Amino acid sequence: MEKILSKAVVLLSGGLDSYTAGAIAKAEGFTCFALSVAYGQRHVREIDCARRVAQALNVTEHKVAELDLRSFGGSALTDEVAVPKRSEAAPGIPVTYVPARNTILLSLALGWAEVVGAFDIFIGVNAVDYSGYPDCRPEFIQAFESLANLATKAAVESKGKFTIHTPLIQFRKSEIIAKGIELGLDYSLTHSCYDPDETGRACGKCDSCVLRKKGFAEAGFDDPIEYVDTNK
Question: Which domains does the chain have, with CATH numbers?
Answer without folding.
Answer: 7-219 (3.40.50.620)
